[in-house]
């Protein structure tokens, strides 16, 4: 699943391509909206809310989309070849005189009244890249379940919106704790640092083509995707294991030397996976 910075970039591309322009093409290729026609309407803006995209159109209409694992929005100029995938994967095309925004493999695509957007995003916690970010509220949300594993709590968008599997692993490394540490066991100084550091990471990467968390030359990430290579700080082999409730387990990376706290127990849903793993979310 894309991280909040990736979704923010997608929102900016859509906004730059469509905002303020009148739609000359409207092609919805999902049965529910097959007869919807937005041609002649002006696009007002596109914003990201956590990992959700909201494209607002004249007439109190919002097109809500979510990329999940496989979805993508691509923007093409007039006459440019569409390269986002085969035609049967296209779910929607929104076009102006000189641009086409094409949504591929979108698992969530729905219309809302703009005034009813909270139906789709009202459950989300503070948005790490939003204008009304509230770090104190985000930390309070995380602390509502002190026994929950920190990694799982960070992925829960109801606590704070925008962290995915990459930032979960990297943030825990930078805090010096394992993703399996209970939220309530997080030292007070690290807890105070968490929302500040999380926002700093996403803000630093929202304008980058390649995500970086290390500040080191030729090394983009500290732990994510690096098992079993040496930790960049201590040279211990980076580990990877599944973390999740069994229904949705995610590869989670950590350094057993640099990060304090529990590791996944053998035989639990967090099964050991000490092989090289490049899967992203």
Can you put this structure into words, describing what you see?
This is DNA-(apurinic or apyrimidinic site) lyase. Belongs to the FPG family. InterPro entries: FPG_cat (IPR012319), FPG_N (IPR035937), H2TH_FPG (IPR015886), Nei2_N (IPR044090), Ribosomal_uS13-like_H2TH (IPR010979), Znf_DNA_glyclase/AP_lyase (IPR000214). The protein has about 280 residues and is an alpha+beta fold. The protein folds into two domains: about 5-120, MutM-like, N-terminal (N-terminal domain of MutM-like DNA repair proteins); about 135-255, Helicase, Ruva Protein, domain 3. About 20% of the residues lie in helices and about 20% in strands. It has six helices and ten strands. The protein has a four-stranded antiparallel β-sheet, with helices on one face. Helix 3 packs across helix 6. The N and C termini lie close together (about 5 Å). The model is unreliable at about 270-280 (pLDDT under 50).
Largest beta sheet: strand ordering:
1-6-7-5
Give the tally of structural domains.
Answer: 2
Oligomer: single chain
Task: Output the structural class.
Answer: alpha+beta
Main sheet: strands, sense, barrel: 4 strands, antiparallel
Radius of gyration: 20 Å
As a percent range, the share of strand residues is 15-25%
**Helix tally?**
6
What overall form do the CA principal axes indicate?
elongated
CATH architecture name of the largest domain: Orthogonal Bundle
Average pLDDT taken over every residue: 93
User: Helical content, roughly?
Assistant: 10-25%
Cα distance spanning the termini: 4 Å
Instruction: List the uncertain runs.
Output: 268-281
Number of strands: 10
The CATH class name of the largest domain reads Mainly Alpha
User: Helix-strand pattern, N to C?
Assistant: HEEEEEEEEHHHHHEE
Would you give the CATH topology of the largest domain?
Helicase, Ruva Protein, domain 3
Domain FPG-type: 222-260
Pfam families: Fapy_DNA_glyco
Region (Disordered): 259-281
Family: Belongs to the FPG family.
């Amino acid at each position: 699943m894309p991280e909040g910075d990736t979704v923010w970039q997608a929102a900016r591309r859509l906004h730059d391509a469509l905002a303020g322009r009148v739609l000359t093409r409207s092609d919805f290729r999902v049965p529910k909206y097959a007869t919807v026609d937005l041609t002649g309407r002006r696009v007002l803006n596109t914003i990201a809310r956590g990992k959700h995209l909201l494209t607002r159109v004249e007439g109190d209409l919002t097109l809500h989309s979510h990329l999940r694992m496989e979805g993508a929005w691509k923007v093409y100029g007039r006459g440019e070849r569409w390269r986002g995938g085969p035609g049967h994967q296209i779910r929607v095309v929104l076009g102006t005189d000189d641009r086409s925004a094409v949504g591929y493999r979108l698992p969530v695509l729905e219309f809302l009244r703009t005034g009813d957007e909270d139906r789709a995003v009202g459950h989300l916690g503070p948005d790490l890249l939003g204008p009304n970010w509230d770090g104190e509220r985000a930390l309070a949300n995380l602390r509502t379940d002190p026994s929950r594993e920190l990694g799982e709590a960070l992925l829960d968008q109801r606590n704070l919106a925008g962290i995915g599997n990459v930032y979960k692993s990297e943030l825990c490394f930078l805090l010096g704790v394992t993703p399996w540490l209970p939220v309530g066991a997080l030292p007070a100084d690290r807890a105070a640092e968490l929302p500040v550091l999380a926002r700093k990471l996403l803000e630093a990467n929202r304008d980058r083509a390649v995500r970086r968390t290390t500040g080191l030359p030729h090394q983009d990430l500290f732990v994510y995707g690096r098992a079993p290579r040496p930790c960049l700080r201590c040279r211990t082999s980076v580990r990877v294991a599944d973390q999740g409730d069994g229904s949705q387990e995610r590869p989670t990376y950590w350094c057993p030397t640099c990060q304090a706290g529990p590791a996944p127990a053998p035989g639990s849903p967090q099964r050991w996976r000490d092989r090289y793993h490049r899967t992203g979310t």
